[in-house]
Amino acid sequence: MKTYRIAVIPGDGIGPEVINEGVKVLNKIAELDSSFEFDFTYFPWGCEFYTKHGKMMDDDGIDQLKDFAAIYLGAVGFPGVPDHISLWDLLLVIRKSFDQYVNLRPVQLLHGAHSALANVKNDEIDMLFIRENTEGEYAGAGDWLFKGQDNEVVLQNAVFSRKGTERIIRYAFEVAKREGKTLTSISKANALNYSMVFWDEVFEEVSLDYPEVKTASYLVDAAAMLMITDPKRFEIIVTSNLFGDILTDVGAAIAGGIGLAAGANINPERRYPSMFEPVHGSAPDIAGKGLSNPLATIWSASQMLDFFGYKEYGKAIASGIEELLSTKEFLTPDMGGTATTSEVGEKMVEILTSQIKRKVLG
């Protein structure tokens, strides 16, 4: 039996609640398969840890995590701890230290999910954002000069290396080629006359190696508009750190809400662990009330299974979420239901058990 060691960082607010349901689903799938198992190790890092110790994680936290197969993150953020500290001192440290330069965020309108767009069909919203995840606008380069003085100046520098830009674009072309889909690059070269002109040039250079992939390129403002007015034109999308962050929230709005927004932070070479997380935030106002929606966390578990090579189980989870959404009996209040967080998780386990047993026995 193969054992996958998973580092679990439940984090803050609703993080522990939704992670519990994701772990429940992963354990049930492993139990039903019996050829592999998960060994979960929990780490108490996050904003509560910060209030006690003055830091978001142990000083040797990266060293503690480096030998795990993957990291499963709940949510980070809590009132009283500035957002830039909770982000930069935990999540971004992990992404950068483990070279998780690929961020995968599916924007897919599942059957049973409600879109903010009127009269849109499920197959018209089915895109995968491939976001550069370690540099760009989130490189953390800059300076704060003459602080508090009349001539105060703040510099925030975006960093686009040839290595970083080319590898994310090439990764996206490989995905588009494998899946037989179109690839759209999103930039802002008319205004950002260095970084985004460079991005566009690299995209054109790499495209020469993939003549079979149909491509398009849009400015980010036009892309935001088109995601709402004509979402079906987008299939695989590659973009920078900042634009990917913003546009995937637009995607969440048109594909069922933030409660269905999952994300994976991937080190494709597998030299370091990859990290899987919902992207909905910690929602401290509803923490501990059983109101949180665990479906994004469960969907990110399907991304983990995909990464480990169990794509059939990844598809089973997506199918299970669709079944749960379609019946509408076990939904949390954010989706118009009355079910608790744990009830949604239990129902997902029940659906998956039935699905997998039917497949095996059939």
TrEMBL record:
SUPFAM superfamilies: Isocitrate/Isopropylmalate dehydrogenase-like. Keywords: Manganese, Metal-binding, NAD, Oxidoreductase. Its EC number is 1.1.1.83. The keyword Transport does not apply. Residues 5-348 form the Isopropylmalate dehydrogenase-like domain. The keyword Metal-binding applies. GO terms for molecular function: tartrate dehydrogenase activity. Its cofactor is Mn(2+); Mg(2+). InterPro entries: ICDH/IPMDH, IsoCit/isopropylmalate_DH_CS, IsoPropMal-DH-like_dom, TTC_DH. It catalyses: (R)-malate + NAD(+) = pyruvate + CO2 + NADH. It is an enzyme of class 1 (oxidoreductase). Belongs to the isocitrate and isopropylmalate dehydrogenases family. This is D-malate dehydrogenase (decarboxylating). It comes from Bacillus norwichensis.
